[in-house]
Structure formats: C-alpha cells, structure tokens
Amino acid sequence: MNEIPNCPQCESEYSYEDGSLFVCPECAHEWSTSAEAESETAEKVIKDANGNVLSDGDTITVIKDLKVKGSSSVVKMGTKVKSIRLVEGDHDIDCKIDGFGAMSLKSEFVKKV
C-alpha cells in the first residue's frame, strides 16, 4: 500500500492523494513526488565549452570564429564579451559585442574568463 507523505510545508499528517498530486487540507499546499515534476521546477544550468557553469554578468571569450547571420562580418576567436545575460532557447546567451551590437550566442562556442 502507498504511504502518503506528510505535508512538506506544514508537516501535517492529514495530507491525501488527488490524482497525481498530494494535497494538504490544513494549509492547502499541493505537491508531487514524481521525478518529472522535480526536474521541471529545477533551474536549467548553462555551461560553457569547458563545462564551467555560466551566470548572469560573467565575462566570456569566443573560442572560434562565428559568422554573423545576415552580414559578411565575423566575430573573431578570442573576442572578449562582458556582462552576459542568460536566456532560454537555442542561443542561450544575450550580450553586447563591441563593433557588432546586441547578439545571441550559443554557450558551446564560448569559455568563461
């Protein structure tokens, strides 16, 4: 028989199961014990090419020449970029590069300084 856990918020022993969720009648807290729900709430960790964890405000260096879409110019290897901002999506770094302006980069083409 499944044992229903106590409420993680108020430690009430009167929690009950409602579909795929557990509910506490005392504090009205709802939670799930499945691994899927825990992974959805976990924040995505963005790493550079060397496996270092990146965060907002970091300084990075471009590790290979990157063609700028819609232009004939190239962001050269070794270009230093300050004050990055992490975003969701395929290109997970928003930044401003001197001489190019605002750009989005993939974390696999940069390394943390």
Automatic annotation (TrEMBL):
Residues 4-32 form the Protein YjdM N-terminal domain. Belongs to the YjdM family. Coiled coil: none annotated. It holds the Pfam family YjdM. SUPFAM superfamilies: Prokaryotic SH3-related domain (SSF82057), Zinc beta-ribbon (SSF57783). The lineage of its organism: Bacteria, Bacillati, Bacillota, Bacilli, Bacillales. It comes from the Bacteria. Residues 46-113 form the Protein YjdM C-terminal domain. It comes from Alkalicoccobacillus murimartini. Signal peptide: none annotated. This is Protein PhnA.
